[in-house]
Amino acid sequence: MKGLILAAGKGSRMKPLTEYLPKPLLPIANKPMILYHIEKLEKLGVDEIYVVVNHNKEPLEKALDGRVKFLQQKEMKGTGDAVLIAKGVMDDDFIVVFGDTYFTDDLSSFRNLEECTIAAYRVQDVSRFGSLVLENGRVKSILEKSGKGEGLIFAGIAFFNPDVFDKLERVELSPRGEIELTDVLLGCKVIELKGSWMDVGYPWSLLEANELELKRRSKSLESKIEGKVEEGAIIKGYVEIGEGTVVRSGSYIEGPVVIGKNCDVGPNCYIRPYTSLGNNVRVGNACEVKNSIVMDGTKIPHQNYVGDSVIGRNCNLGAGTKIANLRFDKQTVKVNVKGKKVDTGRKKLGVIMGDNVQTGINVSIYPGVKIGSDSWIAPGTLVYEDLEKGSYLRVEQKSLKKRCN
User: Fold this and answer.
1) Does residue 23 share a domain with residue 102?
2) pLDDT tens across 321-360, in order?
3) Is residue 293 within 8 Å of residue 310, measured between CB atoms?
4) 211 and 341 both lie in a single domain
């Protein structure tokens, strides 16, 4: 059996995190999202794995280092078209996995199948996804994003025979001009997933997936300390610490937490639960990091607070930079996505920061702000609106007049 991972999306809703890094390589608990799918397929016994890409082939090739093969979807014409590209390559039974999902179930239930079978997951609100209507354990119909409430949705995992390509070639284009994979799912058997599942469609979705993965590890694995922990540092709960990392005296790490290789943590800092620090990350004196993803090479060195945030690679926070993660009115945080305000459903959400961002001392950042890659923010600045890639933001200079008696 072969495997096909659909990863051609441009990740525009994930910006600024995807301005340099392809969406499939965004980290969940310090592991690229696509690796979770590859490992599950390998464990299932899949002998050849293909990844459908569009514009992001080169960084994926470098990151995956010959572990998979690639197919290119030149035009973005839908998930059905992405599968159809594999015609001739998938000459036997194969399994399809959508690359922008996270799920904790293994794929053992997809072993030894003979006919079209899909995975479904029960959600509390089907309005974002569309719901499956079943009859005798098979798909009778799919209600596309109509209605609300609990129901089953297609989880982006499907087992097909090669005859699916003939069906896809007969599918009529959708109103948006795409070939939809869901149009060939009628009559397929359904397997309901019992673990956790989510669509990683927005930047804050990474935080939710990160939390789910760290919870999973804390329940099934033991802590793994490969770096150096100085006397006087406190480690509680499930914690991973990579090779070459130093945790200095006075640091307090409360798991579940994952810390990568060659990091420098402390002294006297607080790393709170559901935090992932990538490789070569610095968290220094009097800093607190809570429920956040901090990617490779970023420095949080002096008197900083980072809460419920996703921070890209090679950023540097000036001393005293503070990231607010809670609105005064305690309402859910809303974020601009492709020109529209989207309610995250989260009462706590900090900054979404791209790569290579630098902040000066005493910078303050409002909840839900997005800061584009390569941006510089001058000392003392209050950031309350999104910044485009390459921005330079400074405090408005006002003339000072000498006081007259």
Assistant:
1) yes
2) 999 999 999 999 999 999 999 999 999 999 999 999 999 9
3) yes
4) yes
Is the CB of residue 279 less than 8 Å from the CB of residue 313?
A: no
More confident residue, 284 or 125: 284
Q: What is the pLDDT averaged over residues 12-35?
A: 95
Per the structure block, which two tokens stand in for 233? 């540092």
pTM over 0.85: yes
Q: How confident is the model at residue 14 (pLDDT cuts 50, 70, 90)?
A: very high
What pLDDT shows up at residue 148?
72
Work out how many domains the chain is built from and give that number: 2
Q: Say how many C-beta atoms besides its own lie within 10 A of residue 113's C-beta.
A: 16
Structural domain boundaries, residue 275: 204-393
Q: Active-site residue among 138, 216, 302, 389?
A: 302
302 has catalytic annotation: yes
Same-domain check for residues 48 and 167: yes
Nearest-5° angle of CA 302, CA 304, CA 309?
A: 140
**Is the pLDDT confidence value at 397 over 80?**
no
What tokens does 40 get? 């599950």
Q: Give the pair of three-digit tokens for residue 349.
A: 């959400």
Question: What is the C-alpha separation between 151 and 124, in angstroms, rounded?
Answer: 7
Give the integer Cα–Cα distance in Å for 160 and 388.
42
61: helix, strand or coil: helix
Cβ(292)–Cβ(308) below 8 Å: yes
| Most confident range, picked from 61-70, 144-153, 396-405 | 61-70
**Beta strand pairing call for 270-271 and 288-290:** parallel
Whichever domain contains 121, its CATH number is 3.90.550.10
Q: Which two tokens stand for residue 70?
A: 């690639």
User: d(Cα 225, Cα 235) in Å, to the nearest integer?
Assistant: 10
367 within domain boundaries: yes
